[in-house]
Amino acid sequence: MKFSSVKYLFREGLRNVWSNRTMSFASVGVLISCLLLTGAAVLLSMNIGSAMEILEGDNSVRVVLDDGLPTLTGIQVGEEIKKLGNIESCEFIPKDEAIKQYLGDDDTLLQGLTGADNPLPDAFRISLVDLSLYDETIAQITALDGVQKVDDYSDIAEKLTSLDTLVTMAGFWIVLLLSLVSLFIIANTIRVTMFSRRVEISIMKSVGATNWFIRVPFVVEGVVIGVVSGLVAALLLVIAYNSLLEVITDIAPFFTPIAVAPLTVRIFLIFIGAGILFGAVGGAISIGKYLRKEGGDIIAW
Amino acid sequence: MIEFRDVSKTYPNGTEALKHVNLKVKKGEFVFIVGSSGAGKSTFLKLIMCEESPNSGEIIVNGRKLSTVKKRDVPYLRRTMGIVFQDFRLIDNMTVYDNVAFAMHVIGASTRDIRKRVPYILGLVGLQKKMKAYPNQLSGGEQQRVGLARALVNNPTMIIADEPTGNIDPALSFEIVDLLSEINRRGTTILMVTHEHRLVKHFHRRVIEIHGGQIVADTALTEVVSHEV
C-alpha cells in the first residue's frame, strides 16, 4: 500500500472519531470504566497475594503471655516453649517494643502508652520447624501456665485466601460483562459512523475499493478510541492508587502495600494494548457484517 | 466486451428478474436499455457489476467469466467500469474536486496523479470552473456531470449509467447523453438504462428492451434481420 493511501486512511479514521464525537466519547467512557475496574481488581489481588506471602514467609506465631506476668516468669515460659521440640526460634518481645512496632517511633503517640499504661502484653514470637505438627505444638503451648493465648495467623490467611478468591471471581465476571458492554458500545459507535458515511461506502464499492481499504478507517476509529481510553484509564489508575496508598499508609503504617511505580510502564502498555484490541475487534465486528451489502442495499440500510 | 449466455436470475423471494437472457455488447458500443419498472433492467446491471450472481447461465465481461471471478477480485473488475447513479450519490460536504478525487483515492492512486487527472476530467465534463463548489451549489445537470466525471476518472473501459437523467430537467437530459456520446466516441462502451423514449429516439443508438425478465427487442438484431431481408 502506498504511503499516500496509508496517510489518507488514517486521516479518514481520525475524521470518523471527530465527526461522531458524542458516541466516541461514550465509548471512551465505558472502556475507561472497564479498564479501571480490571486494573483495580488486579492490584487488589496483587496486594492480597503480597500480604499472604509476608504472612506465609514470616511463618511465625505470637504467643501472648498473661497480663501482669512478671518478666522473669515470662522468660521461664519461653524456656518451657523451647523444650517442647518443633520450635525453630523463640524470641521474646517485651510489650514496650511491641507498642513501638505498632506505632513507630512517634513520641507523641507513644506518650501515655508506655509502662503500666501500655495495653499490650509481653509475648514471644516463635517459628516452627515442621508445619505439619502445627496444631499439636500450638495446643502444647496454649496448655502452658502463663500463656494467655496464641495468635493464630492461619485464620487470617484463610480469610485473605477467600477474599482473594472473591475478588478474582467478582473481578472476572465484572470485567467480562464490562468487556462485552464495551465491545457492544464501540461496535455501535462505528455502526453510527458507517451509517452516516453510507453514501461514501457505496461509492467506494462501486469504484472498486477493496474491502480492506473500506475497513481500515473504521478500524482506525476503534483503535483511536481504544488508545485514548487505555491512556486515560492507566493514568487514572496510577494516580488513584498512589493517592489511596498515601491515605492507607497514614492510617495503617504496618500495612505494606505493593508499590505501583515499578508497574507503571507495564500498566500503560497493557491498558493501551487492551484498548487497541477492544477498538479493533469492535470496529471489525461492525464493518464485517456491513461489507457484505452491495449497491443500493448500502444506501437503504 | 459483455456477453450473457442463457442467463437467468431468480431472487430468494421468488421474483424471476431475468429469464434465459442472451446478448452481446461489443467494445465501443453505446446501448440504451429500456423497459418498464420491474422489467429486470437493474438486475441486468447488477449482474454485470457483480452485485448479484445468476442462478444459471454465464456472463462474460472483458473476456472474463464472472462465475470464475473470486470475491476478492471483484473490486479490481469494478475498476474497469464507471458507474453513474440516478441519484448522483455525491458527498455533500466535499467539493466537486474532492468528490471526483475520492474515487481515485479509494483505489490507492497517488496524490500526484490525482492532482493531474481530476482537473483534466472536470474540464472534459465542462466543470473546471466549479471545482471548488459544493454539490448543493450546482444544478441537477451539473451534479450529474460531477457523477460522470467521477465515473470516468479511473479511466474505465465501460460506463454503466443507471437512469442518469431520471432526476434532472428534461432539457438537461440531452446535455448528459451528449456528453456520454462524446465519451463513447473516445472508445468507452456505454450501457445506459433509461425510461425516456425521447432520448432513445433522438440518439440513434442500439436499444435493448427488457420486459418480464426477457429481451423482447434489440435493434442490433432487427438491423441484422432487416439487412438479411
Gist?
Chain A is α+β, with helices and mostly antiparallel strands and 301 residues long.
How much strand of chain A?
Answer: 5-15%
Order of helices and strands of chain A: HHEHEHHEHEHHHHH
User: How many independent structural domains of chain A?
Assistant: 2
Work out the radius of gyration of chain B: 18 Å
Widest β-sheet, arrangement of strands of chain B: 6-7-8-3-9-10
Number of beta strands of chain B: 10
> How large is the count of helical segments of chain B?
8
Mean pLDDT of chain B: 90
Structure write-up:
The complex is a heterodimer of chains A (301) and B (229). With 301 residues, chain A is an alpha+beta fold. Chain A is elongated and about 100 Å long. Chain A has helices at residues 3-19, 21-58, 71-83, 95-103, 107-110, 134-143, 154-196, 198-207, 211-251, 264-290, 296-299, and strands at 60-65, 87-93, 123-128, 147-151. Chain A has 11 helices and 4 strands. A 4-stranded antiparallel beta sheet of chain A has the order 2-3-1-4. Helices cover 36% and strands 25% of the residues of chain B. In chain B, α5 runs parallel beside α6 (170-185). Chain B is globular and about 50 Å long. In chain B, β1 and β2 form a beta hairpin. Chain B has a 6-stranded mixed beta sheet with strand order 6-7-8-3-9-10, with helices on both faces. Chain B has a 4-stranded antiparallel beta sheet with strand order 2-1-4-5, covered by helices on one side. Chain B folds into 2 domains: 2-80 and 156-228, P-loop containing nucleotide triphosphate hydrolases (Rossmann fold, 3-Layer(aba) Sandwich); 90-155, no CATH class. Chain B is built from 8 helices and 10 strands. The chains are: A alpha+beta (301), B alpha/beta (229). At the A-B interface, α1, α8 and α9 of A face α2, β6 and α3 of B.
